[in-house]
Amino acid sequence: MNRYIIYALVTVILISIGQVLFKLSSKDLKIENVHDIMGFIFNRYLILALIIYIISTALWIFTLSKMELGFSYLLLSLSYPLIFLLSHIFLQEELSSYKLFSILLILLANVILLYGDKA
Q1: Would you state the pLDDT for residue 117?
Q2: Secondary structure in 3-state letters for 37-78
Q3: Which range has the worst mean pLDDT, 11-20, 36-45, 50-59?
Q4: What is the value of pTM for the model shown?
Q5: Residue 104 in this model has a pLDDT that exceeds 60
Q6: d(Cα 6, Cα 110) in Å, to the nearest integer?
Q7: CA-CA distance, 116 to 109, in Å (whole number)?
Q8: Digit-coded pLDDT (tens) for 53-83
């Protein structure tokens, strides 16, 4: 497997983790005064999510410099199934049969993408 595909997949994982952290940072969000704003800005989940996003953005830009844009973005679609899974595990969000079917379609599309040209 091309090492740049690995970089793209690491980016997908980081972005997905960042999204879950953004969601956690917004849990019970209420901004009614300056104290609430400061509390939100210094929320540990928000800070960690932003750090992860900075790292993933740098890695993504590097990856884009080495891979075709269209191919890279199809790999980025793997963030959707990963976010479904992470949100189910860490946020107790429902994982319905429709969501599972959608995840399978995305995974199938990526398998076709990765191995289709080799056939």
Answers
A1: 65
A2: HHHHHCCHHHHHHHHHHHHHHHHHHHHHHHCCHHHHHHHHCC
A3: 36-45
A4: 0.82
A5: yes
A6: 14
A7: 10
A8: 999 999 999 999 999 888 888 889 899 999 9
Are the CB atoms for 84 and 103 separated by under 8 Å? yes
Residue written as tokens 């479904």?
A: 84
CA 114, 115, 116, 117 dihedral sign is: positive
Q: How far apart are CA 42 and CA 90, in angstroms?
A: 21
- Which is nearest to 90 in space by CA: 42, 27, 28, 8? 27
Using CA atoms, how far residue 45 sits from 4, 39, 52, 84, 92, in Å, is 29, 11, 10, 19, 17
